[in-house]
Amino acid sequence: MATHWRAKQTVRSNPLRAEQAHRTPRPLRVLLGEDQSGLRSLIRSTLMRDGYEVQEAEDGPTTLRALVAGLLEEQPRELDLLIADVRMPGFPSLELLARLRRENWFTPVIFITSSEDTALHAEAARLGAACVPDKPFELADLWARMRMVLSPA
């Protein structure tokens, strides 16, 4: 099973998040948008076992609502990583990322996809996705990418 990783796009880090991380230890927050419930459950349970705080979304609109809700809470809860299927029902993740980038939202994103479409991979990289592994993939490979994306610069 071949896993195709794309080069990591340089994304500006949030200096406020880095400063807060040194002051207040908290679990890293991951939003997981995946329409396949079995895969979503597997990734969620593994992330939670490893100490991550995970919020799930089963489609594009739910992913967008989760992002906005976290920002609108009385004490906004910053997201550390978004993992999303590229082609979720209701709202394509590439469109979501394009809108977020236009609003200067630079939280790292890992897209997962069942498509080996090179144009899709190129567009994801252009928008700043850290990587785009193709399904099926090994969880160990996804975890290695997550560690690379989340490690302090």
Automatic annotation (TrEMBL):
It comes from the Bacteria. Keywords: DNA-binding, Phosphoprotein, Transcription, Transcription regulation, Two-component regulatory system. The modification 4-aspartylphosphate is found at residue 85. This is Response regulator. It comes from Hyalangium rubrum. Gene3D superfamilies: 3.40.50.2300. InterPro entries: CheY-like_superfamily, Sig_transdc_resp-reg_receiver, WalR-like. Pfam families: Response_reg. Residues 29-150 form the Response regulatory domain. The keyword Transcription applies. The keyword Phosphoprotein applies. Residues 1-25 are annotated as: Disordered.
